[in-house]
């Protein structure tokens, strides 16, 4: 199987071709059709197997095919480093698309806070946020989720280990009732199953926890970062 079999929008496929992405990893091959069909999903696979592309590519495809004048997708990640990595991958994959993304995380000075607030007010298709900073932004009414279509929890097990369970539930209560929810995790402890039962609706499930990291994916991500830097 290759990425052309997914029949992505031509601009997205052009970006994949430019980056040398030919064949999906197992998690991508299994998850992408489920996401494109609009199902909620629980996906368990080790870090390095291509989980980010597994949800980013179908989301970018759906945004590119829509009238994306509103915030479409919220990705919640446990750390600023992961939020930045996800944003870099989105920029690489969307090089030929008119899709915007914003990483929102704490740890910066007042200037960073103002930059993030201004970016949110001006609008973006995708927000990648850490839970604490996102709650602060939502409390000050700096982000409008009324048109949100996709919610993604990345490294969900790590977020719960870091004590973000209540924060995640608080965020979800402030989102539209109708949206697609995708939960990606490296492990499937009882806490993940508990939160999944609260926030997902009739989810499909993929478990590749014993699979080995896809080394070729790491090399291709380096290429996507190179493309971003010369954009």
Q: What can you tell me about this protein's structure?
A:
There is one protein chain. With 231 residues, this protein is of the alpha/beta class. The chain has one domain (23-223): Rossmann fold. It has ten helices and seven strands. It has a seven-stranded parallel beta sheet with strand order 3-4-2-5-6-1-7, with helices on both faces. α4 (80-93) crosses α10. The radius of gyration is 17 Å and the shape is globular. The model is unreliable at 210-231 (pLDDT under 50).
Please write out the topology.
Layout: H1 10-19, H2 26-36, E1 41-45, H3 51-64, E2 73-76, H4 80-93, E3 101-104, H5 110-122, E4 126-129, H6 131-139, E5 150-153, H7 156-161, H8 165-173, E6 180-185, H9 190-199, E7 204-208, H10 215-229
Parallel strand pairs: 1-6, 1-7, 2-4, 2-5, 3-4, 5-6
Helix pairs in contact: 2-3, 3-4, 4-10, 6-8
List keywords for this structure.
about 230 residues, alpha/beta, Rossmann fold, seven-stranded parallel beta sheet
Give a nutshell description of this structure.
With about 230 residues, the protein is an alpha/beta fold.
